Amino acid sequence: MHLGEYSRQIGHFREASALIQRAREIAGTIDDLPLRLASDQYLGMAFHALGDYRRAAEHERRAAEFPRDEPAPGGFGPTQAGSPAGFRAVSLGWLARCLAEIGEFDEGIEVGREAVRLAEEIDRPYTLVSACWGLGYLLGVRGDLDSAAPLLDRALTVARGAGLTRLLPQVMRALGSAYALMGRVADGTALLEEAVALSESINLRVAESSSLVLLGEVHLLAGRIDDAAVAATRALAMARGRGQRGDEASALHLLGAVAARREPPDPEDVERHLRAAGGLAEEISMRPLVARGRLTLAEFYRRAGHPGEAGRELKAAADLFRRMGMRFWLARAETEGLRLGAAASRDRGDSPLDS
């Protein structure tokens, strides 16, 4: 199991899942409950890295089902979580991150809050950082930035104070992205650059491609199009080489967004990347990324003078954002709708977001 987790951290994700699955089977054979539950937790983490978020969520649910006060042979004392309750809090934090990727935000908020509640009762740094990072990450993906940032800042402060170096890049990338979307682009850039550098220095390959994607998105917000393209290209090569399908979809979306911002844009390049990103995101149930990709396409089509295509993509994006409760992104879609309506008013008087 630990060899599998080591393999996950250095980027050998398929090997990691195979090793941890073998550990889980052995644990069942010898009736070792803590080992079986820990294997479920680590297996969920390996599947998350591969972009198989639904399978990852299933394993984290199984790990979290263990009653926190039930005695178990062998116990959880030697683990970083330190106790059944701490173990459950860490599993729930990971479950929240899995649910964030597939847009199951209501359940994710429920389990994330339970993770934080348990972690605060236990007051162990590793557990508290894992729980706050899990809920903060989910809220950041949803766009609830004012709620996400304090949780992630708390996680970062505790992780630094306790010397939890291998958790730092994960928390930094989530907080950096939240800061940038809140308008604190310089602060976000600094945190994401630190996350990328630290991941490389400690060989934490699991965090590299996702950190690069987020750094590229912040560069794009700042108008640094060439820097965004470099980050996206690196992230895509890493993700494909390591089988990280979720990060691959995110990198493709970023490449499409970069191509759309170039002057002049290459329509074939934009559509190729964004359609590939959307198809892969649909396949692995990344509904938030699907919605964001359709919004990016709508913005591009409006600027390119294709109001019909823009309206169709915009309505699809807005419907998805509305169903997932992604109010931050819905507001962006509505603003884009106003721009499109103004541009299209010369030809027709309806709004692209009319239902």
Structure characterization notes:
The chain has 355 residues and is mainly α. It has a domain at 1-161: Tetratricopeptide repeat domain (Serine Threonine Protein Phosphatase 5, Tetratricopeptide repeat), CATH 1.25.40.10. Helices cover 78% and strands 0% of the residues. It contains 17 helices and no strands. The chain has helices spanning 2-9, 13-29, 33-50, 53-64, 84-102, 105-122, 125-142, 145-162, 168-181, 185-201, 208-221, 225-242, 245-261, 267-283, 287-303, 307-324, 327-344. Helix 10 runs antiparallel to helix 11 and helix 14 runs antiparallel to helix 15. The termini are far apart.
Short structural description:
With 355 residues, this protein is mainly α. 78% of the residues lie in helices and 0% in strands. It has helices at 2-9, 13-29, 33-50, 53-64, 84-102, 105-122, 125-142, 145-162, 168-181, 185-201, 208-221, 225-242, 245-261, 267-283, 287-303, 307-324, 327-344.
Label this structure with key terms.
78% helix, 355 residues, single chain, mainly alpha, Serine Threonine Protein Phosphatase 5, Tetratricopeptide repeat, globular, 17 helices
Lay out the secondary structure:
Layout (H helix, E strand, L loop, with lengths): L1 H8 L3 H17 L3 H18 L2 H12 L19 H19 L2 H18 L2 H18 L2 H18 L5 H14 L3 H17 L6 H14 L3 H18 L2 H17 L5 H17 L3 H17 L3 H18 L2 H18 L11
Helix pairs in contact: 1-2, 2-3, 3-4, 3-5, 4-5, 5-6, 5-7, 6-7, 7-8, 7-9, 8-9, 9-10, 9-11, 10-11, 11-12, 11-13, 12-13, 13-14, 13-15, 14-15, 15-16, 15-17, 16-17
